[in-house]
Structure formats: structure tokens, C-alpha cells
Amino acid sequence: MIKVEEAKEILSAIKIDRKIKTVSITESVGMFCAETIYSPIAVPSFDNSAMDGYALFFDDIKPVMEISGVVKAGDTLVEPLKSETIVRIFTGAPIPVGADTVVKQELVKIQDRQITIDPGLVKKGDFVRKSGAQCEIGQEVVKIGTKITTGTVALLASLGIAEIAVFKKPKVGVVLTGDEVVGSNEKLLPGQIYDANGPMLHTALLELGIEVEFVEKVKDEAKSVEESIKNLVEKVDILILSGGISVGDFDFVRPALQNLGAKELFYRIAQKPGKPLYAGILGSKVVFALPGNPSSSLSCFKVYVSPFIMRFCGAENTYQSDLKFPLAQAYNSDSSLTLFLKCELKEGEIHILSGQESFNLISFNRATGLVEIPNSDTQSSKGNLYNYYPF
Length: 391
Ligand SMILES: Nc1nc2c(c(=O)[nH]1)N[C@H]1C(S)=C(S)[C@@H](COP(=O)(O)OP(=O)(O)OC[C@H]3O[C@@H](n4cnc5c(N)ncnc54)[C@H](O)[C@@H]3O)O[C@H]1N2
Ligand code: MOO
Known about the structure:
Elements: H1 4-13, E1 20-24, E2 37-38, E3 48-49, E4 53-56, E5 64-71, E6 85-89, E7 101-104, E8 108-111, E9 114-117, E10 128-129, E11 140-142, H2 150-158, E12 163-167, E13 172-176, E14 181-182, E15 193-194, H3 197-207, E16 212-217, H4 222-232, E17 238-242, H5 253-259, E18 263-267, E19 271-272, E20 278-282, E21 285-290, H6 294-313, E22 324-326, E23 331-332, E24 338-346, E25 349-352, H7 362-366, E26 369-373, E27 379-380, E28 385-390
Parallel strand pairs: 5-6, 13-16, 13-17, 14-15, 17-21, 19-24
Antiparallel strand pairs: 1-12, 2-11, 3-10, 4-6, 4-7, 5-9, 8-9, 18-20, 20-21, 22-28, 23-27, 24-25, 24-26, 26-28
Helix pairs in contact: 3-6, 4-5
The structure holds ligand LQZAQKY5 and molybdate ion.
Pfam family, one: MoCF_biosynth
Family: Belongs to the MoeA family.
Pathway: Cofactor biosynthesis; molybdopterin biosynthesis
């Protein structure tokens, strides 16, 4: 049995051969940039007005000035400012050559073609957005490895960039074991249960922006499990199995992976829930076998699988959790294992929920995330800071 941190280190060390593709910026949100982007233009590319008002040459300012023209946003041919006059200007319009200051219209009075200003209220350079104030030509604007947000898309669009190179997301598929498990469209017979893990893992993957290749059910027979893994692993980069990974007579997943020649990275972690978690490499593909209990499965997914998928997508340091919050109440553990407890984060404090059994999904519904209590902390005081894994 290995420790939580060792398992994370092993998964962090797996070499990933990321592929790159070009996508339109509107399709790129949530992906990771596979190139460093330098601005092809200065933005703004011309000095322009930040307000609706009047443009003037500051040194010429007088209490009464004559309006000699109008410039609006979109005007491409703008006359230079005539000496000692003022020009009507609108937000986003180019500042005429010779002007250096904008007076917002709330500060002036207009009569015919003349305006009255209090020069004491105006400073040189007011409301002029200078060319290059956002970025200069050739300036680095997005680093390789950046997760693209709506804000990144806005920035790229402002530079006239329509397509970028991103890391391809992994193809992921899910295989469910458990002859007792039936779909919600079937009538529940005695001894059967509804499939929680299929929809749960499917949505957990969708939440990460992964299009799931398949969610397949396999019979609890050694040959069927082996055949399914052998065929389905070909279709994906990461294969996730649910159930059948413990030590029962019908737990065929680990022997099947051994028969297929998978390289086992680890099996069994000193944690609760999710002790019998398995990770291995089959050919060039990564295989996770999650314990069948739904909350063990989801806990393992959040702590180990999700960061691996994000690494595959191009994120860095995904196993370093920097989200820590204080416990709202003291907590005593009688376990020698690291605990991942369902909890609610309220007003910056972690409230550990009742109903921590690994089959209990009522507490999972209420939980906002998991809190990690290391095995060393048998008596945790109120206020102790612990890693928090949000849902
Ligand atoms: N003798 C031992 N028995 C068990 C140990 C052990 O160390 N020694 N470990 C226990 C722990 S901890 C866990 S967790 C489970 C993991 O077992 P498996 O991964 O083999 O999972 P199954 O036996 O197939 O299922 C466990 C449990 O979960 C239910 N299940 C399975 N699939 C689904 C699904 N898709 N939706 C909803 N529920 C599902 C299944 O009916 C079982 O109740 O092993 C313990 N045993
Ligand atoms: O450790 Mo298992 O994951 O609770 O039931």
C-alpha cells in the first residue's frame, strides 16, 4: 500500500505525448495554449478618446473656444486640429493630430459653435487612450500552457487573431463492471442496483470538457473483462474502469490487466475511501481502475484522475493542491488511513458532513467538495487548515 503523496508523484511523472491542433478562438475556451503568442499589432493602434467630449491642444486651452469639426468612432481620415480650436469627439474616435487632451462633455457648456470650459478642471492628456497602451507590436501576450478563458479569447480577438494552436484533449472511455448494476431504463430486480457510476463518471468528464468516447458495461467474467479492456483501450488515451478491482472472486479487473501485460504503477493507497485504486500503463495508454462504491469512485476521480486529465490537456502542477481551508469543528479520526471526507464549504470554513460511508450518496449530494485529513492527524482541531477538493 502506498501513500497518497506517492501516488500523486507517480501520476505526475507519467510522460505525456501531447498532440497539437489548430482551433478557432471561439472553440478554444478551456483548452491550453500550445504556443506563446506575440501581438501582431499595437493595441490601441491609434490614440483615441476614452469619452464623449471635445479634443484640444492643452497648451491652447481658453475659457471659451470654437468648435472646428467632428470626429466619430470609425472615421479613418481625420483632419489635423486647427490651431486654438476644439473638435467634437466621441468615445473610440481617433484623436486628431495636434490634439492631446479630451474634455468630457459634462464639463462644458455649448452655445452655437462655441464651448465654455473651466480650464482648472482639465489636465493635460485627460481621456486619451494612447496607442500601444494595451500592448505593443511583438509583445508577449499569452504564454504557452495558459488555460484559455473567455478573457483570453477577448484579448486574442482584439489582436485580430482568429485561430490558435492548442493541446488536444485526451480521448477517455469508461468501462463499468458489476453484474448487479442495471441502467435506469431497466426494472430493478431483487439484488440489483441502479448504475450510479456510469452517469457520475460521464458527467465528471464532461465537467472537465472531455467528450466521452464510450461508457460500456461488461459482464463479471474473466474473459469478457479481459476482451473488453483489450478492445476498448485501443479507442482512447485514458481508460477508466469502475468496480471489480478489489479482492473478491468476481473482481477480474486487475488479473485481466496483468494478463494483458499492463505495467502496474500502483494498486492500493493508504486512504479511505478508495483504498483499492489501481493505475497502470497498457501499451501507451493510461488505465485507472476505480473502486466500485460510488463515493470511493468519485473521490478517486477527483483526487487522482481529474488532475491527470488536466495534465494531459496541458495544465501544470495539477497535483499540488493550493486550496486549503480551516475546519469549522474539531474532528477525531480513528483511522490509520488518509481520509477524504465529504464536506460543505460555508463562509470559508469546512463542515464535515455526516454519512461518510462510501455507498452514501445523500451526503455526496450535499457536499461542495472533499477535505483531506492526513493519517497523521488523528485529532484535528477547529481552525486546522486542510486541502480542499471542490466539486
Ligand atoms: N475482503 C475485502 N473486501 C473488500 C475490500 C478489502 O480490502 N478486502 N475493500 C473494500 C473497499 S474499500 C472497496 S472500495 C470495495 C471496492 O470493490 P470493487 O472495486 O471490487 O467494487 P465492486 O465490488 O464491484 O463494488 C463495490 C460496491 O459498489 C457497488 N457498485 C459497483 N458498481 C456500481 C455502479 N456502477 N453504480 C453503483 N454502485 C456500484 C457494488 O454494488 C458494491 O456494493 O471493495 C471492498 N471490499
Ligand atoms: O475504501 Mo472503500 O473505497 O471505502 O469502500
